[in-house]
Write a structure and sequence with these properties.
The protein is mainly alpha-helical. The chain is built from ten helices and seven strands.
């Protein structure tokens, strides 16, 4: 709240300085409050499947596929709606992610300013294949707004559709952006290498990734890494001289 109030206040005083009404801004030495990152609140796999099924029944196949891709590709929403058919390599099962779409405008880079290749899971790849019949001959975007039959202007609209499905199912409310956290935690709990998952999601800092998802990484280990070390350092049984 503090930061949201400071933004317009600073702007007002900037105008006052430009108009020579004041010489300095009272906000000059007021610092923004530290923003604490939100804790992930992912959905369980069964919950994700229930949401997708409910959307398919209540909102249609196109909305169900859009959210299924969100759950199993792990892209940022702004990246997903900016995807174009030339970004997809069907033979290799790769998706080149290099842009984001915000307020109806394509930005030439992603949030981290780093393009990446995403190895699509089979469920995400199957969604894109189903999208061929809907958008392949259209104006370039892989995902269109299912109701307006054109490219998404922004990711805001999915919140309403997603939230309605969560409410119909009686699940604890969590926003649509938790689909990305769900992808991360499902991968980690399946035993995927955290560095690979971080790369898939476009994290520039593995440190931040480990801090965000530490409890899922620890939960997925189940003693596996310790077992590898134990096997490597286990004392060898000495052979007696002359024994083969």
């Amino acid at each position: 709240m503090r930061n949201n109030v400071l933004i317009p206040c600073r702007k007002v005083f900037e105008y006052a300085i430009d108009d020579k009404l004041i010489s300095s801004s009272p906000c000059e030495r007021v610092k923004n409050a530290t923003v604490q990152p939100e804790e992930p609140e992912p959905f369980e796999l069964d919950e994700a499947n229930d949401i997708i099924a409910n959307l398919r029944e209540q909102a249609g196949d196109a909305w169900a596929d859009y959210l299924e891709f969100a759950f199993f590709a792990g892209l940022r929403a702004s990246e997903q709606i900016a995807l174009r058919w030339e970004d997809y390599d069907a033979k290799a099962g790769l998706l080149h992610v290099e842009r984001a779409r915000v307020w109806a405008k394509d930005k030439p880079t992603t949030k981290t300013h780093r393009p990446r290749n995403v190895e699509l899971l089979d469920r995400a790849k199957a969604v894109i294949e189903r999208q061929r019949a809907r958008t392949r001959l259209g104006r370039g975007a892989i995902f269109w707004h299912p109701d307006l039959h054109r490219a998404f202007n922004d990711e805001q609209v999915r919140r309403r559709v997603f939230g309605a499905a969560v409410a119909r199912l009686g699940l604890r409310h969590r926003p649509a952006k938790q689909t990305r956290h769900t992808f991360a935690t499902l991968c980690l709990m399946a035993g995927a290498n955290p560095a690979w998952v971080a790369k898939q999601m476009g994290h520039t800092s593995t440190k931040m990734f480990f801090e965000t998802y530490s409890r899922w990484i620890e939960g997925a280990d189940k003693g596996l890494e310790k077992g590898k070390v134990e096997a490597a350092i286990r004392p060898k049984i000495a052979r007696k001289r002359g024994q083969k």
